[in-house]
Amino acid sequence: MKEEDKLKELFKGLEGTFDTEGPRTGHRERFLEKLSDTPRATNLHNHEKKKNRWRVFSIAASIAVLCLIGIGINALRPSLDEQVAQISPEVSNTQVYFASLIEDQVKQLKNESSPETRKIIADTMDQLEKLETNYKQLETDLIHGGNDKLILSAMITNFQTRIDLLQEVIEQIETIKNLKNQNNANSII
């Protein structure tokens, strides 16, 4: 007899005794509950937790190392102002002087703010921002080896332009205030 015949006979003999019904409701939950109660399942679960913790810690450590490297690189590289000061210390001193003058005039300008002058002040601040952007570009050009004398002259001209702009706007605001006072005085009479 061949093996195939033996298998067929075995199945014929077992015919009708097979369990063909599905499992009862909740079988999966009961099975998982029993599975989780076993020590092996608990060990596997704890191992998974440890593995996940290790992943989280390794990712956090990697991020921390990258941040420290980035900070270290930035700390080693001098700032734009420091690089300009290395090229021309006079520019650094001049920059401090002009920057303080400009800052004082901007404060004065902001103190003069009123409904009549808000628009002119806002426009002036926009112009100052553009001039500051141009100045930063001049600093970058100076660092990257442009014509030093020409760039230094342009930097000083930029500061003078800002100061002139602020003085002109402050004068205009004074004129506006005087006209307003004259109109108010004429209205009262």
Account of the 3D structure:
The chain contains 7 helices and no strands. It is an all-alpha fold and 189 residues long. It has 2 domains: 35-76; 80-180. α4 (80-87) packs across α5 (89-111).
Annotation keywords:
189 residues; mainly alpha; 7 helices; single chain
Summary, kept brief:
This protein is an all-alpha fold and 189 residues long. The chain has helices at residues 3-14, 27-37, 39-76, 80-87, 89-111, 118-143, 148-188.
Over all CA atoms, what is the radius of gyration? 41 Å
Q: Which residues sit in consecutive blocks of at least 5 with pLDDT less than 50?
A: none
Our estimate of the beta-strand percent is: under 5%
Calculate the terminal CA-CA distance, rounded to whole Å. 134 Å
Structural class: mainly alpha
Q: What is the string of helix and strand elements? A: HHHHHHH
Assembly level:
single chain
Largest sheet: none
How many individual domains? 2
Q: Could you tell me the mean pLDDT?
A: 78
Helices, strands, pairings?
Elements: H1 3-14, H2 27-37, H3 39-76, H4 80-87, H5 89-111, H6 118-143, H7 148-188
Helix pairs in contact: 4-5, 4-6, 5-7, 6-7
